Amino acid sequence: MSRFKVATAAYPLGVFDQWDGYAAKIREWVVEAAGQGSDLLLFPEYGALELATLDGTAVSSNAASCLQATSNYVPRSNELHSALAQEFGVTIVGGSAPVLENGVMVNRAPVFGPEGTISYQDKQIMTRFERDPWAIEGGEPLQIFDTPVGKLGILTCYDSEFPLLGRALVEAGAEVILVPSCTEGLEGYWRVRIGAMSRALEGQCVTVMASLVGDRPEISGMETNTGMGGVFGPPDEGFPPTGVIAEGTLGQPGWTYGEIDLGKVRAVRADGHVLNASHWGEQVGRDGKPDHILVK
């Protein structure tokens, strides 16, 4: 599929006292996006933390118990998302979750295919808050997801701010990089957005950013969330001069929709006004320690 529609979420966390309420919410979001003709749905980083409220707000408001409770519900949540992906014939990247594996807590974004497959991408580089007090660690390496809409990579939030991670995905064949994010303040949102747009520029690809929005004091670490959905490309031939294909409204919950044409990605990589992706290697040998020159 060389052309497809993406839906990227500005997602507000909820509080639930029963599973059916959570399942109904996720279904409603998927129904809306699929009803608009979306082929790929992206939920934000830590979108799964609302699962912890199923054990009560005393659990979800405590850091350690919130992470563990969320991890406990992940298998059931995966079954729900997988069933919805099959029912509506879409690819879904679910809200990432803390997952306890072999004694290590990782931040894991699940990927659900329209035929029911379940895979995942772990976050690579942790923020200060994730390191302490949450004690979350970097997980398994980066992967490329061969999906019905094309070759996708995932850079979860802070990962998008590191160019070599984006380059690794581009060199492995990614034409679209997904950036699920969770940012407290406006400065955090812009750090991730600038990272996402920079990866689109240097990799001559499309990046898609999802965000958490709204205040949720009942969930540890999620007291305030700022962001919106966005779809970005290289500011070059065939793309908007700003590089912004689509963007939502800051702080407003809902889907942002964007049309992605992989033919344009391939065209700009082959014959754009600039050729960042193919000229990347010319940095090698020019990136050593600079000499110091005294200017008087």
From TrEMBL:
Assigned EC number: 3.5.1.100
UniProt KW keywords: Hydrolase
Domain CN hydrolase: 4-262
GO MF terms, alphabetically ordered: hydrolase activity
PROSITE patterns named in the record: CN_HYDROLASE (PS50263)
InterPro entries attached to this UniProt entry: C-N_Hydrolase, C-N_Hydrolase_sf
Keyword set includes Hydrolase: yes
CDD domains referenced in this protein's UniProt entry, alphabetically: nitrilase_Rim1_like (cd07574)
Protein name, as recorded: (R)-stereoselective amidase
Organism: Thalassovita autumnalis
